[in-house]
Amino acid sequence: MNPRICFVIAGAFAVLLPLMAQKGPDPKASPARTAHVQPAHDDEGAQGQRVFKQNCARCHDAPQGFPPQISGTVLRHMRVRANLSASDEKALLHFMNP
Amino acid sequence: MLAGATLLASVYAVPAQDVPLISGGAGFVTSTKGGNTTYIPVISPLLAAPVGSHILVESRATILDSFFPKGGGQPGYTHDLFMGLDYLQADITANRHMTLVAGQFLTPFGTYNERLTPIWISNFVDAPLIFGLGTMGTAHSVGGMLRGSAASTQSFNLDYAAYFSAASTNEQFNAERSAGGRASLYVPAAKLEVGASFNRLLQGTRENFSGIHLWWEPADSSFRLRSEFARAAHARGYWIEAGYRLDRFGGDHSVWSRFEPLFRMQQTFRSEQDANDTLPSADTKQADFGLDFHLPHEFRINTSYSREFSSSGNRNIWQTGLTYRFLIPTWRGK
Question: Do A81 and B220 touch (CB under 8 A)?
Answer without folding.
Answer: no
